[in-house]
Design brief:
Length: 463
């Protein structure tokens, strides 16, 4: 590849391939044009398929066992209750803009998850939704912040609350946020000098999916035909497609263009209250029984009789109470694997609320990761019913099954596959049948820019 090629990367967080490449495709003429003259297909996310660590795995080509974080929240080793948040400070490996900076190539990086706090690069950076508020320094250089606020007429870091019953207000928030960010992106692309890599991620698709999936997916158990938001997702992606066309026009015909998502989206069938289940199984023992639904709190656990406890979310993280590792551990190391194997068997046998066996996978981190920090992973990573069920962390429910979440209204879960579209000047390929992984994106971008791929990267060059 020529070392003077420019690369434009447009990220649509949570964009689902089944809709983008299927039902909505006719509403996306600009994406269609890239697909017609490039390559496209499903892009397998990380395990777990969530925003953090997926975007950083994509842009560093390292698996979470190398990165050392498995979500936004992470457990502090040797503690029951201490947690830390995986901001950019947790990223100890190079991402593509770090490599390009050393090669004298300029990057513009906008809204990419895990870029707050910002770091110095050859170029400019506008940080992600982990930025606390607009008073924070969220740009590099810091002097750019005032210009960003002016361009956007008040920059929007994220939706104020996307788990809300005010659906009309939420939809307006998402559109306003997306329009303001696009105005910033087009201004920087047009007016802020030459660049080699321009990357902008929009979080709106994720916020819309969690807020509106029951209204747009007829397979959702809460779907009602004729509801006022039935076309809101298709309409929103049509807006993203128009914005994509504008970005491509500004980038110019010589640019390589990629459109990617970190994972997909699909309906949420329910929430499996995993700590309640562990209590029923006799594996988690409380000092005081819950009176009604309440938050799970580590200080209420009788650790002298507890084998395992869990964190919830779009997947479950299960921790074993291991002697010598946890402060009051009771699982002796020589029994660790047999206890874990028994727990896997029990978890994978849980039926759904109708008595049907779920397609649940309980994964050992050592089987799916390689790297020096695998030991800091949870003991099990659990996907309930092929990810259609999320994991609830709260306790005190009447049954293990819930159909509303403890964190507010939420309609969707994350899926294993995101989207990948790549078009190069003069190329015409077609659909890629499979085998694409998000860790392939970083080496592919470096190759397009004529930069050697570091041997530590785990992905491959797609083309």
């Amino acid at each position: 590849m020529s070392d003077c090629t420019k690369v434009l990367v447009v990220g649509w967080d949570s964009a689902p391939p089944q809709e983008v490449f299927g039902d909505w495709r006719s509403s996306l003429p600009n994406l269609n044009g890239l697909m017609d003259r490039g390559v496209w297909g499903r892009l397998r996310s990380t395990d777990p398929p969530i925003t953090v660590p997926a975007w950083t795995s994509m842009l560093s080509s390292r698996n979470p066992g190398q990165l050392g974080f498995y979500g936004f929240r992470n457990r502090k080793a040797g503690s029951y209750a201490d947690k830390w948040i995986a901001t950019s400070a947790a990223v100890k490996v190079d991402r593509i803009w770090n490599i390009l900076s050393r090669e004298g190539k300029r990057s513009c990086v906008l809204n990419v998850p895990q870029t707050y706090p910002v770091s110095a690069i050859d170029g400019v950076m506008v940080a992600d939704f982990l930025t606390p508020n607009n008073g924070s320094v969220y740009t590099y250089p810091a002097s750019l912040k005032a210009e960003i606020e002016r361009i956007a007429d008040g920059y929007v870091i994220d939706c104020a609350n996307y788990r809300t019953e005010d659906k009309r207000g939420l939809l307006e928030q998402i559109h306003v946020m997306t329009e303001k960010r696009h105005k910033v992106a087009t201004t920087l692309l047009r007016d802020y000098g030459t660049w080699d890599l321009f990357m902008a991620v929009e979080m709106g698709p994720d916020r819309l999916a969690h807020g509106f999936w029951q209204y747009v997916d007829p397979r959702h158990r809460k779907y009602r035909q004729g509801n006022p938001f039935e076309t809101c997702a298709r309409d929103y992606y049509a807006l993203l497609d128009r914005q994509l066309g504008e970005l491509c026009d500004l980038a110019g015909p010589e640019a390589v263009v990629l459109v990617v998502s970190d994972h997909g989206t699909k309906r949420m069938d329910g929430s499996l209250n995993v700590n309640d289940w562990l209590i029923e199984e006799g594996l988690l023992v409380l000092r005081r029984q819950a009176e009604g639904v309440t938050r799970f709190r580590e200080e209420n656990v009788d650790w002298s009789r507890t084998v395992a406890w869990a964190w919830g979310g779009y997947y479950a993280r299960i921790f074993l109470n291991v002697a010598g590792r946890e402060p009051q551990g009771i699982v002796v190391p020589e029994d660790y694997e047999s206890v874990r194997d028994d727990l896997i068997r029990r978890l994978e046998a849980i039926p759904d609320d109708q008595g049907r066996r779920m397609s649940t996978k309980a994964l050992r981190p050592q089987d799916i990761y390689r790297g020096p920090q695998v030991g800091q992973a949870p003991d099990l990573i659990v996907y309930f019913d092929d990810l259609f069920w999320r994991a609830g962390q709260d306790i005190g429910h009447d049954t293990p099954y819930s159909f509303d979440t403890e964190i507010g209204p939420d309609d969707s879960v994350h899926d294993y596959d995101g989207i990948f579209v790549m078009a190069r000047p003069g190329d015409r390929r077609g659909r890629l049948s499979g085998g694409l992984h998000c860790m392939d994106v970083a080496p592919t971008i470096l190759h397009a820019l004529g930069v050697a791929v570091p041997p530590a990267m785990e992905g491959r060059i797609i083309f």
